[in-house]
Automatic annotation (TrEMBL):
<keyword id="KW-0227">DNA damage</keyword>
<dbReference type="GO" id="GO:0003690">
    <property type="term" value="F:double-stranded DNA binding"/>
</dbReference>
<dbReference type="InterPro" id="IPR006164">
    <property type="entry name" value="DNA_bd_Ku70/Ku80"/>
</dbReference>
<keyword id="KW-0234">DNA repair</keyword>
<keyword id="KW-0238">DNA-binding</keyword>
<dbReference type="InterPro" id="IPR009187">
    <property type="entry name" value="Prok_Ku"/>
</dbReference>
<feature type="region of interest" description="Disordered">
    <location>
        <begin position="253"/>
        <end position="361"/>
    </location>
</feature>
<dbReference type="GO" id="GO:0006303">
    <property type="term" value="P:double-strand break repair via nonhomologous end joining"/>
</dbReference>
<dbReference type="InterPro" id="IPR016194">
    <property type="entry name" value="SPOC-like_C_dom_sf"/>
</dbReference>
<protein>
    <recommendedName>
        <fullName>Non-homologous end joining protein Ku</fullName>
    </recommendedName>
</protein>
<feature type="domain" description="Ku">
    <location>
        <begin position="55"/>
        <end position="184"/>
    </location>
</feature>
<comment type="function">
    <text>With LigD forms a non-homologous end joining (NHEJ) DNA repair enzyme, which repairs dsDNA breaks with reduced fidelity. Binds linear dsDNA with 5'- and 3'- overhangs but not closed circular dsDNA nor ssDNA. Recruits and stimulates the ligase activity of LigD.</text>
</comment>
<dbReference type="GO" id="GO:0006310">
    <property type="term" value="P:DNA recombination"/>
</dbReference>
<comment type="subunit">
    <text>Homodimer. Interacts with LigD.</text>
</comment>
<feature type="compositionally biased region" description="Basic residues">
    <location>
        <begin position="341"/>
        <end position="361"/>
    </location>
</feature>
<comment type="similarity">
    <text>Belongs to the prokaryotic Ku family.</text>
</comment>
<feature type="compositionally biased region" description="Low complexity">
    <location>
        <begin position="297"/>
        <end position="334"/>
    </location>
</feature>
């Protein structure tokens, strides 16, 4: 269980029902952070806060907030001023409406929080709101104040908990003007059919199976440098692909996706894409080499391979023959040694027998 530390305490206002809650961060960052250093000696680079009037460094306890007026005047605003703002959402998440979830533009969604029940007394009204949201299939729109400003939020059910997503105000979302292509383009039904086929072939993915490969690679680099080793080399650039028209690209994508899943491509997908070259003009190809030249190259390559194989086989046979000769020589030497030893033993026995006969005579 991760450490549940509240960043804000207040209550949910649900009509006349008040639900004490604690605001808890629902997400966490696993990104690797870096320090700034002086590259010549590795010394840390730090930012110090100085007072312009006294020209001295000040501590965090001496730093406050102020609003700069048009004439440059600084109007101090204390935390106590912010805590007593004359708005109902100062310490309250005030639910103002319930709407279908698809009414919320994902562009508006920001930080996510869990709303934890604030004590045993909050268990019953908290559960009531959660079950009401479940049964209605709606989300609650609320207003709340956090970090010095009033914000918009969306409450929804996640498991057995209520989560809140911070929302941007509608006037904070820019209209997509000037983003879409400004040229007239006609998309044919067959192109849409192929796009649908590609979407179906790619299928779905379990988001839990996805991970940050950049961070994995970064951790490998840090571990290698910490061990005094060379960091792993980056893969080479991907080879440049041929310019294909849209239909050919879609057909090839569908075929590749099916092959990666072990499926067979349909007969229609095996056909070439030259007939669809309407969207992008293909560059001229270089003329093919004459048949004789191509055949000569293949023959030469084949001859080289055959010669290489023969040379390798001959070398292997020669090595085996040499090994056999060495073994035979060793065997002959051992046999000669044994024969010489026998002859020596016989001579010694004959001498001993002659000497014995002389003593007897």
């Amino acid at each position: 269980m991760w450490n549940v530390r509240s960043i804000w305490n207040g209550a949910i206002s649900f009509g006349l029902v008040s639900i004490p809650i604690k605001l808890v961060n629902a997400t966490e960052s696993h990104s690797i952070s870096f320090r700034q250093i002086h590259t010549e000696d590795g010394g840390r680079i730090r930012y110090r806060k100085f007072c312009e009037l006294e020209d001295r460094e000040v501590s965090g306890a001496e730093i406050g907030k102020a609003y700069e007026d048009a004439d440059g005047t600084m109007i101090q605003i204390s935390d106590d001023d912010l805590a007593h703002l004359p708005i109902p959402t100062a310490r309250t998440i005030e639910i103002v409406a319930f709407v279908p979830a698809d009414r919320i533009d994902p562009l508006q969604m920001g930080a996510a929080y869990y709303l934890a029940a604030g004590g045993a007394a909050a268990a019953k009204p908290y559960t009531l709101l959660r079950e009401a949201l479940k049964r209605s299939n709606k989300v609650a729109i609320a207003k709340y104040a956090l970090r010095g400003r009033e914000r918009l939020g969306m409450l929804r059910v996640v498991g057995d908990a209520i989560a809140m997503h911070g929302l941007l105000w509608p006037d904070e979302v820019r209209a997509p003007e000037g983003v879409a292509p400004d040229t007239d383009v006609t998309v044919r039904d067959k192109e849409l059919d192929l796009a649908d086929a590609l979407m179906d072939t790619l299928g779905e993915v379990d988001l839990a199976d996805l991970h940050d490969e950049y961070q994995d690679a970064l951790e490998e680099v840090i571990a290698a440098k910490a061990a005094g080793e060379e960091p792993p080399e980056a893969p080479g650039p991907a080879p440049g692909g041929k310019v294909l028209d849209l239909m050919a690209a879609l057909e090839n994508s569908v075929r590749a996706a099916k092959e990666s899943r072990g499926e067979e491509a349909e007969p229609g997908e095996e056909a070439g894409a030259a007939e669809h070259a309407e969207v992008t003009s293909l560059p001229r190809r270089r003329p093919a080499a004459p048949e004789g030249e191509t055949g000569g190259r293949r023959t030469t390559a084949g001859a080289k391979k055959t010669a290489a194989k023969k040379t390798t086989a001959g070398a292997a046979k020669t090595a085996k023959s040499a090994q056999a000769k060495k073994a035979a020589a060793k065997s002959t030497a051992k046999s000669a040694d044994r024969t010489a030893a026998k002859k020596t033993a016989k001579k010694t026995a004959a001498k001993k027998s002659a000497a014995s006969r002389k003593r007897t005579a």
